[in-house]
Amino acid sequence: MQKTRLFAAIALCGVAAAPLASLAAGADTFANGQSYYGQPTSPQAATRAVDLGSASAINVAYGESVTFRSGGQLFTWTFNGLDRRAVDVTKIAPAGFTTKPLVVYVGLNPANRR
Fold first, then answer.
1. What are phi and psi of 17, to 5 degrees?
2. DSSP letter assigned to residue 59
3. Are 74 and 53 in contact (CB under 8 A)?
4. Which residues sit opposite 78 in a β-bridge?
5. pTM exceeds 0.90, yes or no
6. β-strands 103-106, 57-60 pairing
């Protein structure tokens, strides 16, 4: 009897954890697939460039577009997702982009009143 209850409890925990695992897989995106941190954009939209070899952390204004450079590679990102976030560049860099960890601190969205 005790073994049956234990097995039922373990099975129930497994069933309850399955949806949580699927949420964790897409933890950095909204339901529509957009990133919490913003979106990639063209280099022409950038207001500044950051060399990942010399930076350790940067502050950006909400909505600011920044070009990140590492060696001969570059990508540009607009930080217009959720405000007041810290994001590691490795989370937003395109596949194959080689980078070291760099924290970007996103400022307050001016449309939000706090």
1. -80, -20
2. E
3. no
4. 39, 65
5. no
6. parallel
Closest CA to 106 of 91, 78, 76, 86: 86
Structure tokens at 41: 């954009």
In angstroms, the CA 33 to CA 24 distance is 14
DSSP output for 28-57: TB-TTS-BTTBEEE-GGG-SEEEETTT-SE
How many angstroms separate the CA atoms of 59 and 70, rounded?
Answer: 18
Count of residues in the chain: 114
Give the pLDDT of the chain (114 residues) as one tens digit per residue: 565 554 554 544 444 444 443 344 457 889 999 999 999 999 999 999 999 988 889 999 999 999 999 989 999 999 999 999 999 999 999 998 988 888 999 999 988 876
**52 CB contacts (<8 Å, ≥6 apart)?**
68, 69, 70, 89, 99, 100, 102
